[in-house]
Inverse folding.
């Protein structure tokens, strides 16, 4: 059992990354999507193979990680998004451990063990489709599963915990609680949708930012408490210079138009630390083929968006890509930042 008195476990290579990020001069790249990239390579999510890639398609998964590293990513994410004991069944432990091993193997083969960070992806929904992200489990067994996942990622050797597509208060709080008690550093990735609505008689356009998984919750309602909780923990445990482990908060899996607004909301609602940004390019989910339809955003459009956030938010020093983008987008972004 860990206690909050223990210091946060930051690996040497992770400390070096933080130093570089805090210098403010560098832009560090995170990888792109794993699932939709595997999908594009024939290890399809629709067949269910995608979720089992760390065992059944090990080489394909290692190759995706290696390709991102070669494209310039210094942070790679484990293929554990949306997977928990309930979802993965009896192979949960082997699949999770295997996913971390594949990331480590890619780091070994590219001889980047001193510099590349492995981020353990944690999310609470299981890709059932927009507006349908509440786990079917009861909250208690669900929280127990999240604790198991965090513990497993930790002992498997990830450098940092990466909370992805969070924002719905009911399920984001237990994830933050789990990573805080693990005493690992963690990053929070908020995801949102923006429905531009027309209001008033003159037809004024108004932005309506909602947390991705929960269309009933405006981002401005959810973020203040979640950001405070990430920093202070339960009952302000970490308030007096205590270290909750949160090093970065940012926006991910958002459409480019919404992403900048989420970054702005994060700053407005109490976060003045480092940020990250990685948009997605999913236009829709096609249930008939269980595949995403992407917008095929050209690499230069993607890079321009990223450079814009880097310019507008000086603390947003991590850039990357999410679902629907590809290795070529990371490579192009790397080129455009002079990497
Ligand atoms: Zn995504």
């Amino acid at each position: 059992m860990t206690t909050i008195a223990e210091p946060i476990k930051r690996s040497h290579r992770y400390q070096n990354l933080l130093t570089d990020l805090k210098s403010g001069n560098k832009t560090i790249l995170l990888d792109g999507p794993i699932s939709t990239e595997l999908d594009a390579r024939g290890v399809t999510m629709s067949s269910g193979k995608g979720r089992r890639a760390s065992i059944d398609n090990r080489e394909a998964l290692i190759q995706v990680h290696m390709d991102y590293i070669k494209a310039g990513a210094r942070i790679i994410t484990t293929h554990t998004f949306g997977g928990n004991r309930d979802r993965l069944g009896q192979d949960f432990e082997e699949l999770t451990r295997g996913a971390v091993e594949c990331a480590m193997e890619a780091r070994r083969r590219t001889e980047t063990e001193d510099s590349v960070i492995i981020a353990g992806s944690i999310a609470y929904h299981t890709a059932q489709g927009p507006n349908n992200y509440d786990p079917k489990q009861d909250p208690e067994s669900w929280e127990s599963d999240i604790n198991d996942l965090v513990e497993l990622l930790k002992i498997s050797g990830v450098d940092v915990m990466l909370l992805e597509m969070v924002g719905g208060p009911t399920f984001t709080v237990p994830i933050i609680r789990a990573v805080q008690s693990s005493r690992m550093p963690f990053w929070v990735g908020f995801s949102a949708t923006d429905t531009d609505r027309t209001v008033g008689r003159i037809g004024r356009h108004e932005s309506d930012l909602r947390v991705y998984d929960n269309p009933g919750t405006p981002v401005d309602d959810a973020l203040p408490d979640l950001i405070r909780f990430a920093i202070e923990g339960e009952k302000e445990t970490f308030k007096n210079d205590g270290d909750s482990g949160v090093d970065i908060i940012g926006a991910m899996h958002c459409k480019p138009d919404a992403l900048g607004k989420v970054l702005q909301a994060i700053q407005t609602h109490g976060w003045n630390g480092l940020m990250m940004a990685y948009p997605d390019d999913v236009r829709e989910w096609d249930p008939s083929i269980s595949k995403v339809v992407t917008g095929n955003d050209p690499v230069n459009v993607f890079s321009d968006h990223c450079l814009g956030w880097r310019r507008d938010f000086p603390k947003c020093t991590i850039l990357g890509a999410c679902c629907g983008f590809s290795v070529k987008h990371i490579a192009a972004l790397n080129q455009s930042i002079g990497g």
Observations:
- Residues 33, 253, 280, 322-323 surround zinc ion (CB under 6 Å).
